[in-house]
Amino acid sequence: MDTVIERDVVVVGAGPAGLMAARTLAAAGRSVAVLEARDRVGGRTWSDVIDGAFLEIGGQWVSPDQTELLSLLSELGLGTYPRYREGDAVYLAPDGTRTRYQAATFPTSEKTTAEIDRLTTILDELVAEIDPDAPWKHPRARELDTISFQHWLRRESADDEACDAVGLFIAGGMLTKPAHSFSALQALLMAASAGSFSHLTDENFILDRRVIGGMQSVSLAMAASLGADVHLGTPVRTIRREPGGSVTVVSDHITVRAEQVIVAVPPPLYSRISYEPPLPRRQHQLHQHLSMGLVIKVHAVYETPFWRADGLSGTGFGSQSLVQEVYDNTNHGDTRGTLVGFVADEKADQLFALDPAARRERILASIAEFLGEQALNPVVYYESDWASEEWTRGAYGASFDLGGLSRYGADLRTPVGPIHWACSDIAGAGFQHVDGALRMGRAAAESILAA
């Protein structure tokens, strides 16, 4: 017979959001149980040793605006270190031309550079009008939410290279969806969550630092403080609202009776749980308009960071390249060199149709276009494929389809009786980042405490 326990609050999911919620509640004297489907904590943050190399399989970067995360790192005594960025970056133009550069903007033609700057200014002005916690309140919200970001860019500019360069930072770099599949308002939320669109285009800001020991160490430290109240390998199957207002949460190995429940998993996984009685119509509709992106995060480890000897930073961009972004991802104190590259949305679809050997060959050839033939022969190679993960199903997070954000956004965090929601996908500031997950976990816990 499954174990039955009683707690004040049960948390579904042991990622940063769920663990922050549990930690906040426990600090206030509430009893908690955290139920996690995986055999580990950390959610979409995961650090592991693959073939002798330490790799950050999931989320990893810390930017200066992520104050919730920075505060927690300080509290937990976890250090950070800067991403290597000395030397030239590499830009691959749509025609394949390779250019080394050190400027803050891509080395495009004078005309295209002016268009990129003009589009960036327009986006920064719009972002300044957006409340990241309530983008649907913008006077033009529906207008901006019913036109795709791709079509909005083409409406503003006839320069394809400029449009693709600007689109790269949100489509491939953040939402990991084609720019025709999400709205201009969704793009503005992504930028507003980081403070400005200019922040998203500045890799020295958005990809500033990493956590010594890996981002998952944040979740590991929070889980350690909760001890036996974190239960792994026990997927939640049913959340039952009882007549008196309490809940019964049934997982594979443990049943928890509690006053409140916080569901701290990505929205596309909400439907993996049965709700008795069913959730309201509004929630059913809302959840169907959110979907995960798709990206292959590629890790290539070399005996040395060979690109540095050539005066390269390891950073590369190419909106038409197979690997659209590449960065030096060498670990703290490591003598070996690590590169990380990203293949997003439709390009990832094409590669997943290939066998693993052919996929690896094409990916490394694309990285070599940026950094030279030495990139073809890593000593360790690994692909993070979150879309195949049963308890994630995509990366980096969930975003709305056209029209969904203005229509349903205001209901994202609305509790259903004793059921509360917390994850990075419903955050304003820190949207789709660990920082946003922590904010949402704390907010859900504080809402329960206030009630």
TrEMBL record:
Domain Amine oxidase: 17-449
Annotated keywords: Oxidoreductase
Pfam families: Amino_oxidase
Cofactor: FAD
Domain of life per record: Bacteria
InterPro entries per record: Amino_oxidase, FAD/NAD-bd_sf, Flavin_amine_oxidase, Flavin_MAO
Binding site for substrate: 342
GO MF annotation list: oxidoreductase activity
UniProt: FAD binding residues: 36-37, 236
Family: Belongs to the flavin monoamine oxidase family.
PANTHER family (UniProt xref): AMINE OXIDASE (PTHR43563), AMINE OXIDASE [FLAVIN-CONTAINING] B (PTHR43563:SF1)
Protein name from the UniProt record: Putative amine oxidoreductase
Organism: Actinoplanes missouriensis (strain ATCC 14538 / DSM 43046 / CBS 188.64 / JCM 3121 / NBRC 102363 / NCIMB 12654 / NRRL B-3342 / UNCC 431)
